[in-house]
Amino acid sequence: MSQNLQIEYVQRLIKIAGIGKKSKYDNLAKTSALYQLHTITQQDTSWGADEATKAHKAYLDLIIKKALEA
Fold it and tell me: What is the tens place of the pLDDT at every residue in 10-30?
């Protein structure tokens, strides 16, 4: 359940940041969303995380990377 929420959160941040499409949000909201996406990609799951958590983190990173490259 929490993994689905995290994916939804990342997708909404991408929309708020205006990555790939024009965003209706102001520049402060866009900046904050982009910063949160960057923070998510920088989080480390190498210690103490099970394989499912590592796979989920890799998927989140892929979603963010693809959005930024679009």
Answer: 999 999 999 988 899 999 999
Q: How many domains does the chain have?
A: 1
Inform me whether the pLDDT recorded for 45 exceeds 90.
no
The DSSP letter of residue 22 is -
End-to-end CA distance of the chain: 28
Give the CA count within 13 Å in the CB-facing half-sphere of 42: 6
Range of the domain at 55: 2-69
Q: Which residue type, as a one-letter code, is found at position 9?
A: Y
Q: What are phi and psi of 37, to 5 degrees?
A: -60, -45
| H or E segment and range at residue 57 | helix 51-69
